[in-house]
Amino acid sequence: MLERNEAASIEIITSVGEIEPAQWDACAGPDNPFVSHAFLHALESSGSASGRRGWLPRHLVVRDSAGSLCAAAPLYLKSHSYGEYVFDWAWADAYERAGGRYYPKLQCASPFTPVTGPRLMVRHDLDSVARYEAEETLAAGLVVAAERHGASSVHVTFPTRAEWQTLGRHGFLQRVGMQYHFMNPGYRDFEDFLDALASRKRKQIRRERREVAESGIRLHCLHGSEMEPRHWEAFYDFYLATADKRWGFPYLKPEFFEDIGRTMGDRILMVLAEAPDGRPVAGALNLLGNDAVYGRNWGCLEDYSFLHFEACYYQAIEYAIENGFARVEAGAQGEHKIQRGYLPVETYSAHWFADSRLEAGVADFLEREQRAVRARIAGLGEHSPFKRT
Predict the structure, then answer these.
(1) Average pLDDT taken over every residue of the chain
(2) Fold matches, 9-178+346-381 and 185-325
(3) Strand extents, DSSP E, the chain
(4) Does CATH place domain 9-178+346-381 in 3.40.50.300?
């Protein structure tokens, strides 16, 4: 254990595989699957997050005097800004037009994952003073790592609010974003949730679910060992279809899905949709935390009215209610989620820049953006589908 009179050492490792899973997960904690050793290792070992893809692992780890891991931060040296969900393209463009070199930069995040979770990860069995010191060491270490790699900047995306505040004390600029989450105050079942909605919204959801049922589509919620190789093969086709439709790049390789299916099956909920003839035609992938259902990937091979809402939103809500989860996080973007019970909430990111001129420009932008985002959240809250009390 790191005592306050013990010297800690900080180092950079080039793969999460260099750390024993139990030691990494003792820092990551059990709440968020996206920073677990299994998830990050699957990204790296599959080649989904690699130097060739522009995500070169450069994780920070802190060890106590006995060499035991006491803190860690998932960190990547990046040559582009894809797969982050907190957009800095305009900053990069402005800096390079002014003669600067924006890439490489450092990204402290879970790749391709717009989910709030720990980024300055400290072992939970440390006392409060040791935890504070380890977190401070990681925050300062991010800047040292940037200087060592000649990076223009460090970007910590989707940290917890407490980490966001810690990074602010270390000179990071603070940014506010927005997502849509469903909150479960303890509904008895899906009908109890519907009863909390205004009449028109309740009727709309019932109509959407009825149309999916009457189309002959059958939905199956698969968990753990219920997910077979054929299900993962079908889901990867859905994933590619989404990338094609959105002119996106399929960041995740099939080996990634195979790996998490094997190592994290108990933390995965797959919603599989089958056509009347039994063909799998669509699917939604959710990961499970201790208190949240996280909607991550969706794809569909054919067009069916309201199937996206059913597979991604209503099935997740129903599963969360039945299994006692406190919330469902449905990912980035989409005002249409509000009418289906997902309300706007703040998300956070923190940004450090080596060049004070770039820092000043971004700081001015973020001050104005933060006011606009918070005003938008307040305005969207007026469109809540829930009964007014």
Answers:
(1) 95
(2) yes
(3) 9-13, 55-57, 59-63, 69-73, 75-78, 105-108, 121-122, 153-157, 173-183, 218-223, 268-274, 280-288, 292-300, 327-329, 343-353
(4) no
